[in-house]
Design goal:
single chain, alpha/beta, Rossmann fold, Alpha-Beta Plaits, six-stranded mixed sheet
Length: about 325
């Protein structure tokens, strides 16, 4: 728990466990307590009650061991704009106890890894937003951490830079790094996270794989557009054994909707059943619940980043 002056509890009753080697997505609306949780787990803020450990070390009583085990790329990183990327990486290496030669070698290795070799000797003040985020990631990796904390790593990035950073996070995961990812983007959580936790009002309100969370709010719906409205009722009868057939929609008389857990796998049986009943099909679409549907169901609001995902790039 973390309580601030005035009795405000930013985190209250949060029970959270992240498995070694997984990517854990942490979602929540602004003010839900995400940043407070990250600051506690990275030893930047002391909890007022409760217990938290990272990589087997208590965040209060063994903070030095926690800091040696983690890498942190916060949204508001303090980077000297007058230094070059290479200088910052070598300085970070020195702060982590690397010898000069090893820090130099590690800086070159990481600049290459995040695609900044050509920009490595330029002052950071001239870097684009995407380049700065990649440098943030490199700085967090200097000492090969067991656990990597990424706080909204792609906020404000263009689609190309976002995909490039996703690729690097996947590579780190393949190498065995545990990643704790806070994000405003539902697509990001779905693309990267093996499990997702949703926090609201300081408490964990939902947790599971993206697939299991979406299954909680509803089954996929297969929408079939038949050739003529007159055959729609015959189509509903033909599909009655394949799922829950929705009532006719006066606004779309030639459309038949079937809710089924099979999702896309139900398309072939549906087509066969309609063919056997001599119903001509114009088109078939599958609509599945989204993480935004889950978020809305458990928090009562949409995630701020969801609107940005729907906007054209």
């Amino acid at each position: 728990m973390r309580e601030f002056k005035g009795g405000i509890r930013a985190v209250d009753g949060l029970d959270l466990e992240v498995q070694e080697g997984e990517i854990y997505g942490f979602l929540g609306p602004n003010g839900a307590g995400k940043t407070t949780v990250v600051r506690i787990l990275t030893t930047l803020l002391r909890p007022t009650a409760g217990h938290a450990s990272v990589a087997g070390h208590d965040v209060v009583h063994d903070g030095d061991a926690v800091r040696r085990a983690i890498g942190v790329a916060l949204q508001e990183a303090a980077i000297d704009p007058l230094m070059t990327g290479r200088e910052l990486l070598r300085m970070q290496g020195a702060l982590h106890g690397l010898r000069a030669a090893e820090a130099k070698r590690r800086a070159a290795e990481l600049l290459d890894r995040v695609g900044l070799t050509e920009a490595g000797d330029r002052r950071v003040g001239g870097y684009s937003g995407g380049m700065r985020r990649r440098l943030d990631l490199a700085l967090a990796l200097v000492h090969r951490p067991q656990v990597l904390f990424l706080d909204e790593p792609t906020t404000g990035l263009d689609p190309t830079s976002r995909v490039a950073l996703w690729r690097e996070v996947r590579a780190l995961h393949a190498e065995g790094t545990t990643v704790f990812l806070t994000t405003q983007y539902l697509e990001e959580a779905e693309q990267l996270a093996g499990r997702v936790g949703i926090i609201a009002r300081g408490s964990l309100v939902a947790e599971g794989t993206p697939e299991s969370l979406k299954a909680r709010v509803g089954q996929p719906t297969v929408h079939v557009e038949v050739a003529d409205p007159e055959s729609a009722e015959r189509a509903r009868e033909a599909l009655a054994d394949l799922g829950a057939v929705e009532p006719p929609n006066p606004a779309a008389p030639a459309r038949v909707a079937v809710r089924t857990a099979a999702g896309k796998a139900a398309i072939a049986p549906i087509i066969r059943a309609l063919d056997e009943h001599e119903v001509a099909v114009e088109s078939v679409e599958v609509e599945t619940p989204t993480l935004d549907d889950v978020f809305m169901a458990v928090t009562g609001s949409h995630l701020e980043g969801a609107a940005a995902e729907e906007a054209p790039a």
